[in-house]
Amino acid sequence: MHPFTISYNDPNVRRKLLKRKLKSETLLLDGATGTELERRGVDISLPLWSARAILDAPETLMQIHLDYLLAGANIITANTFRTHRHNLASSEMGDQATTITKQAVEIAKKAVRLSNTSAFVAGSIAPLGDSYTPQNTLSETTLREEHALMSNILMSCGVDLLLVETMNTILEAVIATSAAISTGCPTFTSLVCGRDGSLLSGESLYDAAASLLQLNPHAILINCTSAQDILSPLQDLRTYTKLPIGAYANVGYLNEQKNWVQTAAVNPDSYAKYALTWSQAGATLIGGCCGTRPAHIATLRNLLSL
Ligand SMILES: [Zn+2]
């Protein structure tokens, strides 16, 4: 090979390229994986939830990634949201965390190869407990051990970035982000805000951002908040940092009775109109969370002229 040939197969080259693009481009993330698996008939019942698809429906999972790539996603997220050892242990599969996580990353990488794009693959690092019940947060020791293990496994799989996502407490966001950053891999951290713009724990977004900024992540985002509610915390976030910021929202929200209320954002055109306001507020990482589909990403790409 010519010494100056850039090898896009080298994770370090790709990570550098990602960091460069982050400074100058808007990058599209993918949309939901869990709800899309369910829509395509894959069992995502608890406790394994979306992790079950890695073993039972790898082709469907790969096709979902591929559909997001063909829709224009620049970054797809491997289906590692529920592959922490701690989560798999509830199905007697804790000892397979490394194998299952690797399979999930390989499925995402295969989709990128088939798409003939140079899209990036993110490894998802999610909260250990239920995303919507921050009071269930586990001991600090467990959080540290599990997020360090997950970060190291994902790094060894050669992901291009670590996406610490759907974080609902400052403590877990800081522990997971710190574990991710210590691998040397580019790290984005995404927080869930409630309808009032605070974290689900009740802690303020300002305090969360202040704690995270001390760790030097590469971007801070807000996700799993309804499309109609995400602009306000995003605008707040813009005033706290000059780092790249982003958003990927839900097409609905949980009401006080914990029932899912779908909003107009279920329609891709409506979702994209919300997303345009996020872009105008300074977001340069934009995608979709629960309930979004490849059509949402394709519509985003057109409206944002990417
Ligand atoms: Zn979500």
CATH superfamily: Homocysteine-binding-like domain
Helix and strand pattern: HEHHHEHHEHEHEHEHEEEHEH
Number of domains in the coordinates? 1
In CATH terms, what is the fold-level topology? Answer: TIM Barrel
Biggest sheet, spatial arrangement of strands: 1-10-7-6-5-4-3-2
Report the bound ligands by name, code or SMILES.
zinc ion
Q: Could you name the CATH class?
A: Alpha Beta
Helix content range:
40-55%
Query: What CATH architecture do you see?
Result: Alpha-Beta Barrel
What integer is the average pLDDT? 94
Total number of helices? 12
Gyration radius, rounded: 18 Å
Describe this entry's structure for a reader.
The chain contains twelve helices and ten strands. Helix 7 (140-156) packs parallel to helix 8 and helix 8 runs parallel beside helix 9. By secondary structure, it is an alpha/beta fold. The radius of gyration is 18 Å and the shape is globular. It starts with 10 loop residues before the first helix and ends with a helix. The strands form two sheets. Strands 1-10-7-6-5-4-3-2 form an eight-stranded parallel sheet. The chain has a single domain (27-303), classed as TIM Barrel. Strand 3, helix 7 and strand 4 (161-167) form a beta-alpha-beta unit. The site of zinc ion has 4 residues, from loops. Zinc ion binds at residues 224, 250, 289-290.
